[in-house]
Structures are given as structure tokens and as C-alpha cells.
Specification:
- The chain is α+β, with helices and mostly antiparallel strands and 139 residues long.
- It has a single domain, classed as START domain (Alpha-D-Glucose-1,6-Bisphosphate, Chain A, domain 4), CATH 3.30.530.
- The protein has 4 helices and 7 strands, in the order E-H-H-E-E-E-E-E-E-H-H.
- A 7-stranded antiparallel beta sheet has the order 1-7-6-5-4-3-2.
- Strand 3 and strand 4 form a beta hairpin.
Length: 139
Amino acid sequence: MLIRKPVSAVFQAFIDPAITTKFWFTKSSGPLETGKTVTWEWEMYGASTDVLTKQIIPNQLISTEWDDPPTAVDYEFKALSDDTTYVVIRNYGFRETGEELIQAIKDNTGGFTTVLDGLKAYLEHNLQLNLIADKFPKM
């Protein structure tokens, strides 16, 4: 996803939970730091996950591991100009097979696409779209 903001601002949006909570999870036990585990919460769903940050290369890469069973999630940042950044989220290391693997890939692809859509709206237009909260409303 292309984000029309400098790479440092886009990178910080994933490191700093004060920003990330504007477009993704609702609560975090702290910022992402190499070698540290934080807990992310989606309070509207009563869900949480522990996130281990394995590597950070400022303005280039955040490599994490989370979920149960754990999978790797890498956030890659590429400055295309002084004011534009291309973000790629890669999720891999699934243990499922067959139809369960296909479903896991579909769920994760859809979820991370929603995260990137919310990030773009927030950073470019200061809009909180509530995409995550509205994805599965109580019915």
C-alpha cells in the first residue's frame, strides 16, 4: 500500500501504540522494541495476542512473531520519495495445511489489508475509519 507520508512517520505508526490504536488494535502494553514482547488487545472483541519483536531496522523493517500457533509477520517500509512510503506486510510460517491453510491465508490477507487501509486513511487524512471495530459487529 502506498502511503503519502514520509517513511519515518509511517514506520513510527507501527512502533508507537498511541498511533497504532488509531487504526488497528485498541490497547498495547508498550511500544515495539527488539527482543521485547508486548500484548495487543482488541477490546471490542475480547481478544488479545502477545507480539514478540524479533528485529527492527529503523524506517525499513519490523519483524515480529505472534498468534497461536505463532507465525512471522514482517512490516517492510520503502521510501519512494521524501513524502511517500510503500508498506508491505508479509505473514508466513503457517502450520496449517490444505483447506485450513487456504482459510488462514485468506483471513490474514484480508485482515492486514484492512489494517493498511486504516493506516492510509489515518495518516493521510487524519480519519479514524473504525475498520477493525466495524469488521465484525455484534448482531
